[in-house]
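Researcher: Let's continue the batch. This sequence belongs to Pre-mRNA-processing factor 19, and it's 87 residues. Same format as the previous ones, please.
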Amino acid sequence: MGVLFLVVAVEFDHSGCYLGVAGSDIRVFQVASVKAEWNCVKTLPDLSGTGRLTCAKFGPDAKYIAVGSMDRNLRIFGLPGDEGQAE
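Model: Same format as before. Here are the structure tokens for Pre-mRNA-processing factor 19:
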């Protein structure tokens, strides 16, 4: 049996190369094709402490992902190829 993960929001970037999945944390997958194995390139924590993220949206160049949470905050994280994160 696999690991259970509550999914609240999913979002592809504009190029279709990355998929963001928000739930109890944020997971960003690199999507090669529908039939190929997807590679999790980054896992980001839920910094709100609520354990519940509500939405995820990629920036136009897929260098950042914005994530909303139940504590009514919006956090912006850098993605693979970018150092650090902005909050």
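Researcher: Any comment?
Model: Strands lie at 7-12, 18-23, 26-30, 39-44, 53-58, 64-69, 74-78.
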